[in-house]
Amino acid sequence: MTLFGPISLHGGHSGEFCCHAEDRLADIIAQYIQMGFRQVGITEHIPPKHSKFLYPEEIAQGLTVDHMYQRFAQYFTTVRQLKADLADRIRIFAGMETEAFTGYLPHVRHLVTEFSPDYIVGSVHHVADICFDYSSQTYREAVRACGSVKDLYMAYFDRQFEMIQAVRPFVVGHFDLIRIHDPDYTKRVLQPDIAQKIDRNLDLIKDLNLVMDLNLRPLARGEAEPYPAKSILEKIRSRQIPMVPGDDSHGIFQAGKHVDTGIRLLVKMGFDTNWPVPRLIELK
Ligand SMILES: [Zn+2]
Ligand SMILES: [Zn+2]
């Protein structure tokens, strides 16, 4: 069984359940339906395990770890309700996007047991417990904590390797997000020490039969290419790892955007556009 046509398996963050997103989840899903999507994966961020992982806007709104957990529980209630209500119009997969900060593994295990998501997007947004993609300032802090930009990349891909081995996410999210505030990323990912870690991680993804996120968020920001970068996409293609578009939408305006561009790119590169059906893989 495979899925056909426009799809996003990473996104649907909504203002209802995420402080750095906008709009109601029902309205975001209505947008997918209007754009002709017959299937979509919704993957809200998991709540933090510790208050030090709250984002500034969450702290500003007075949210605590407990509030965030309750809100996440409410997310699953809402997305499952929408899934049932809209079943004849769109197939919704109720997922979640993980983190890889210190202590994430027992936390993710607990969330999986508690909420039984349809599938997981496995992402790394923290290195040295610093959220490097939050701003160019936090990126610089992460560089300082690691020693150099190269060391930051090395630590990122090591953490990603460990996360993939432990969590076995159906979708590996924005594989090279670590390039986000690095203008020299095209050359950096070819640097032998870094390329070796990239190859190692891709081999693991292939061994575990996982899927990769063609993450279109950079296009929404006006950047030239999605995650992963072209040279990495070629490595993925040669390993025959499936890639599925993810708009990484954080509001109605971004929902489904650039998915057509993403699919054209995949077709041009010779990827299969019969999409695998998301499922939960048992954690190690
Ligand atoms: Zn987000
Ligand atoms: Zn993410």
Task: Lay out the secondary structure.
Blueprint: E1 2-3, H1 25-34, E2 39-45, H2 56-60, H3 65-85, E3 91-97, H4 104-115, E4 119-122, E5 126-127, E6 130-131, H5 136-146, H6 149-167, E7 171-172, H7 185-188, H8 192-207, E8 211-215, H9 217-220, H10 230-239, E9 243-246, H11 259-269, E10 275-276
Parallel strand pairs: 2-3, 3-4, 4-7, 7-8, 8-9
Antiparallel strand pairs: 1-10, 5-6
Helix pairs in contact: 5-6, 6-8, 8-10
Bound molecules: zinc ion (2 copies).
One zinc ion binds next to loops.
For this entry, give a set of tags.
284 residues, binds zinc ion, 11 helices, TIM Barrel, two-stranded antiparallel sheet, six-stranded parallel beta sheet, alpha/beta
Give an overview of the whole structure.
The protein has helices at residues 25-34, 56-60, 65-85, 104-115, 136-146, 149-167, 185-188, 192-207, 217-220, 230-239, 259-269; strands spanning 2-3, 39-45, 91-97, 119-122, 126-127, 130-131, 171-172, 211-215, 243-246, 275-276. With 284 residues, it is an alpha/beta fold. The protein has one domain (2-276): Metal-dependent hydrolases (TIM Barrel), CATH 3.20.20.140. The strands form three sheets. A six-stranded parallel beta sheet has the order 2-3-4-7-8-9. The structure holds zinc ion (ZN) (2 copies). Residues 97, 123, 125, 173-174 line the site of one zinc ion.
Helix and strand succession? EHEHHEHEEEHHEHHEHHEHE
The structural domain count equals 1
What's the total number of strands? 10
Structural class: alpha/beta
> Over all CA atoms, what is the radius of gyration?
18 Å
Oligomer: single chain
Distance between the termini: 26 Å
* Mean of pLDDT: 97
Q: What's the CATH architecture name?
A: Alpha-Beta Barrel
- CATH T-level topology: TIM Barrel
Global outline: globular
Q: Summarize the amount of helix as a percent range.
A: 40-55%
Ligands and ions found? zinc ion
Please count the helical segments: 11
Main pleated-sheet profile: 6 strands, parallel
- CATH homologous superfamily assignment: Metal-dependent hydrolases
The CATH class label is: Alpha Beta
Content of β-strand: 5-15%
Q: What's the arrangement of strands in the largest beta sheet?
A: 2-3-4-7-8-9
